[in-house]
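Worked example

This section walks through a single chain of length 175. The input is the sequence exactly as stored; nothing has been trimmed or padded.
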Amino acid sequence: MGKETKHEIVTAKRTAPKLVTKGDSNVTIHPADEDQIQRLYGMKTREAADLLLNLALNAFGQKAMEYIDLMPAMAVELEPRDAVEAMLVTQMTATHFALCSMSQKGLHAACPDVREGYERSMTRLSRTFLAQMDGLKKYRAKAQQTVRVERVTVNEGGQAIVGSVSHEGGGHGKK
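Given that input, the structure is written out below as tokens.
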């Protein structure tokens, strides 16, 4: 990885590695360089990024080989900045894929009970997806937290300050 800093890895242009399918369930990952997958996921270690991509590809199962490019493509689109975001992006993509698969199966279900089962699964998956999106949004906003005071009570003889308060040290003992 040379002398790149974490910031350079995360902000570098993200591209998806080339994925080559062989047979019904074999995928070979061909990264453009040794750090491509690490940059893709914004992760500190190459090993964790490689394992996450392998887990992500396995989430689609054997019959979904034609959709394998979706996982790395969504990492390019959503630009995870660290391991937590990379895992959330992977989970969101797998959940969305499952939701779409259930939808397709539900459309072709002949029995109303089976169709209703697919609809329940779709409802659960859509709720899960929304929760994952909310989790990613909250995680990304963690550094931007603010505290807002809704109500202040000042009793007789008390004082209140409205506005910013800062304290500069070293003022004790000055005359």
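What to look for: Residues 112-140 form the longest helix (29 residues).
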